[in-house]
MYO1B protein (Drymodes brunneopygia), 348 residues
Amino acid sequence: QDNSFEQFIINYCNEKLQQIFIELTLKEEQEEYIREGIEWTHIEYFNNAVICDLIENNQTGILAMLDEECLRPGTVTDDTFLEKLNQVCATHQHFESRMSKCSRFLNDTSLPHSCFRIQHYAGKVMYQVEGFVDKNNDLLYRDLSQAMWKANHSLIKALFPEGNPAKLNLKRPPTAGSQFKASVATLMKNLQTKNPNYIRCIKPNDKKAAHVFNEALVCHQIRYLGLLENVRVRRAGYAFRQPYEPCLERYKMLCKQTWPHWRGPARAGVEVLFNELGIPEEEFSFGRSKIFIRNPRTLFKLEDLRKQRLEDLATLIEKIYRGWKCRTRFLLMKKCQIVIASWYRRYA
């Protein structure tokens, strides 16, 4: 019920994860259809980049305002931080405050004076500003770090590397918010270089009880996790896509014209292959560099045909090998018989 700085930081990380989920599933997939020249009707979805900008913008973001309050001279309190937010973020559509200059919330008496509310992707969350400044400072006195670094215990010494006199830095240590922001940025950069697979966990009830299914709770999670938009894109789009070259290489044994070697462009080979297999035209589309398959059943059918064909090829290879082995043995026996017969006739 009472959300402070810690929950604010956690929700910020959730927003960034949701943003990369949107980038890699909804936005990137629809842009790929356009790049590949596939006929496509754009499906609208909510992009939470505006919420991330509200929190992390270097000039007008909430974290930037918090750092500015922590670093500026003079009397600094949680109330002065909230006043700055009211001035800078008042007109933002996802920010609400009791003292906000935005007339939409001037009559919102349910919001206490010492709180602000952010409309996150998953819903509205109210934060108590009490403790924001102190928790963000996260100061460890320099002389204490130096004293701990001088300890004889190696583990304690390793925990306070900033106490090393050789690395003495007179700059003010970074705030907790800025450290977390940098850590999240590193995480996002790392995820962008990967090919992630998403598993969305749905909590069936709040009691952690078995065989209890709360329909309202599940529907709420489905909405705020963005699953509805994702399902709409998936159903309207294509379940599988692959460049022409590896697709032809994988399934070329299913068609006499492409097996064992196809002489020509890979796309033409894939077209011949799909026409030979009799796959309905509505089940696939040809992009500029990839083949797009709409229904998973079509892919499963291709895999089943390939599996059966591989078994047939294995049988053919085994048959040819056995025939070669028997013929080799027969020719050897025939040669031996001729030698024996010739020697016998010589002495007969």
